[in-house]
From TrEMBL:
UniProt keyword list: Membrane, Transmembrane, Transmembrane helix
InterPro entries recorded: LysO
Any single Pfam family the record assigns to this protein: Lys_export
Protein name: Lysine exporter LysO family protein
Domain of life, source organism: Bacteria
Bilayer-spanning residue ranges: 6-29, 36-55, 61-83, 104-125, 137-154, 166-190, 202-226, 233-255, 275-297
């Protein structure tokens, strides 16, 4: 049962065991990771082009996306404000202008990459039998590089264990997202394990889409990608509005992106005190995404 999980998970573990001391090497790895994400998202678009009854399948992808997004977000947002009520976080307002539109466009660019692959596949009529194998090979390389990134993210085990609020926020996200996935799976009439896997993306749209696509096909891959990307776009919009009154809610809803993509928004909107909480919460969730998603996909 776990052979497939081990096959995909092994590169991540190997990568995590590799320390990198040179900034130039880390920069190179970060650049190649970003490029591989674009390549594999293009392949996801090509996979969608190879589906029979494409219009019906696209409708199914959007239905899955909406159902999971609403179910998971509702469960998250019912619980996160409780943390703010019983364990307040001091914030400070920094009025520097945020590159909001730039960050939104970076997210929307990824949708265009998938759409570009879809259009190319439809217009050229090329043989797409090679796409699944190519996606699998690139996925293994990508997981290896992601493992290196996690190991060299600057977070030590001591720093993680000492930040209790960051751990609490991450735990609440996990414990509320999984029931949200079960609710969505029940509504859609799909296996609960598929729902749990879909709920384990925690905002990491690229990896979630790739893993779900590799495990369950392009429909689930596309839905996972859009679900997590929509979460990030909503988080970018909500953080500046919510963080002064509900900092834990704003940080938690950002999910895994709280340690990287949405971190500048969190810092500029909530102040420096929010940064360690966001980094720890985001790091733990990022680390759990491949663990939990691959586990549920293997069941």
């Amino acid at each position: 049962m776990f052979s497939g999980m081990l096959y995909i998970f092994l590169p991540l573990v190997i990568g995590y065991l590799i320390p990198v001391g040179k900034d130039s090497v880390l920069t190179f790895i970060n650049t190649q990771t970003s490029r591989l994400v674009l390549v594999i998202l293009t392949l996801m678009g090509l996979s969608l082009a190879g589906l029979d009854n494409l219009g019906q399948n696209l409708n199914q992808i959007l239905t899955y996306t909406a159902t999971f997004f609403i179910s998971i977000s509702a469960c998250n947002l019912l619980a996160l404000p409780v943390i703010d009520k019983i364990w307040p976080t001091e914030t400070s307002q920094d009025h520097r202008q945020l590159p909001f539109m730039k960050m939104m466009m970076e997210s929307l660019k990824l949708i265009l990459v998938v759409a570009g692959g879809l259009v190319v596949g439809l217009l050229t009529g090329m043989d797409l039998e090679w796409v699944d194998k190519a996606s699998e090979v690139i996925l293994l390389i990508l997981l290896f590089l992601i493992g290196i990134q996690l190991r060299n993210s600057g977070m030590t085990l001591r720093q993680i264990l000492l930040n209790k609020k960051g751990i609490t926020i991450a735990l609440v996200i996990v414990l509320t997202s999984l029931p949200g996935g079960i609710i969505a799976a029940t509504i859609l009439g799909i296996p609960v394990t598929h729902g749990l896997a879909m709920a384990s993306g925690f905002g990491w749209y690229s990896l979630a889409g790739i893993l779900m696509g590799d495990g369950l096909g392009p429909i689930f891959g596309g839905a996972a990608f859009l679900n997590e990307l929509l979460r990030e776009l909503i988080a970018l919009s909500l953080i500046p509005v919510m963080i002064s009154r509900y900092p834990s809610t704003a940080i938690g809803y950002a999910g895994a992106t709280a340690m990287d993509f949405t971190l500048p928004v969190i810092q500029n909107s909530g102040g420096i005190r929010c940064v360690p909480i966001a980094i720890v919460s985001g790091f733990i969730l990022s680390l759990l995404v491949p663990f939990l998603m691959l586990f549920f996909l293997s069941l």
